[in-house]
Amino acid sequence: MTDLELKQDVIEELRWEPTVDEVEIGVAVKDGIVTLSGYVDTYHEKLAAERAAQGVFGVKAVVQEIKVRLPDSLQRSDEDIAEAAANALAWNVPVPNDRIKVKVQEGWLTLSGQVDWRYQRDAAEDAVCNLLGVVGVSNQITVKPSLKPTEIRSKIESAFERNALLDARRISVQVRGDKVTLEGSVRSYVEKKEAEQAACSAPGICEVENNIIVNP
Questions:
Q1: Which one has a higher pLDDT value, 25 or 205?
Q2: Which domains does the chain have, with CATH numbers?
Q3: What are 101-126's pLDDT values in tens digits?
Q4: Cα–Cα distance measured from residue 147 to residue 152, given in angstroms and rounded to the nearest whole number
Q5: What sign results for the dihedral spanned by CA atoms 119, 151, 212, 12?
Q6: What residues pair up with 136 in beta bridges, in sequence order?
Q7: Of 4, 83, 122, 153, which residue is the least packed, with the fewest Cβ within 10 Å?
């Protein structure tokens, strides 16, 4: 597949995504790497555009350069956003909200604190990224390690073997502290993200460096 063909597929996928106005988004492709640019009205639309591009077959990586430019009707004060974020975290079952701190500056929301599991860290971010007035989210929540690196590696490799979408033989796993590094090659960007998500689910893991190469 050529870069021109891949670009057209990404554009068509953006048109297919109902929450995205593809007219506002620029698409450039070089060597299978997609760069998204332009302006959107909400942070949710920015994330939706990125997910849509990631799901296109042949995409090796996505560079996110879209900026959120809120219309006047969606503007909210930092105080209002902070209050809404605190309420969203309090109502989210997987999130231990008593351990999460929220900071908002000019619509940019920063989360901090410590949790036991990566899914709790992700759930906290998911709970606030769709709030009205948010232009971006920085997730600085850390995950408290609970297992030895060798035990974590074994659990991740077992998870890969159970996953029908992954060929575990093509992926190697290294664990250092609360960070996992993935190497190898897969057939699609979706498969690459599936491996990353599986690694993120390991207990005590805060960061996953995904160096897997997409080779359609």
A1: 25
A2: 3-68 (3.30.1340.30), 72-143 (3.30.1340.30), 149-214 (3.30.1340.30)
A3: 999 999 999 999 998 888 899 999 99
A4: 6
A5: negative
A6: 108
A7: 4
